[in-house]
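Troubleshooting: if your tokenizer reports a length mismatch, compare your output against this known-good record of 121 residues.
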Amino acid sequence: MTVKINTKDGQIELTDDVIATIVGGAATEIFGVVGMASKNAIKDNFQALLGKENYAKGVVVKTTEEGSIAVDVYTVLSYGTKISEVSKNIQERVKFSLENQLGITAETVNVYIQNIKVVGE
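Known-good structure output:
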């Protein structure tokens, strides 16, 4: 589905992929996030072969009939980080990025921790 924004000059349509890319980019900027967990392994592996960065990996955008959106973010976090704090930061950053870059408000941002990785050493 798409999100439609009416302006005085016309209409802007944002696809779920555009929204997911903004969300994934925002989430990966947060300290403690190692990466995104894949929700579509075949598509993501193909893009990895092409050398493309896939920020939409691990993001599911749901659009309601009223036009509001809900976002599910599937992440991999670094071992030793405070999960509740990192999750809260992801939610805040995603909401801010959507409002700032696209002018839309996410009703909910659900964060799912799919894995913990030991980084460094």
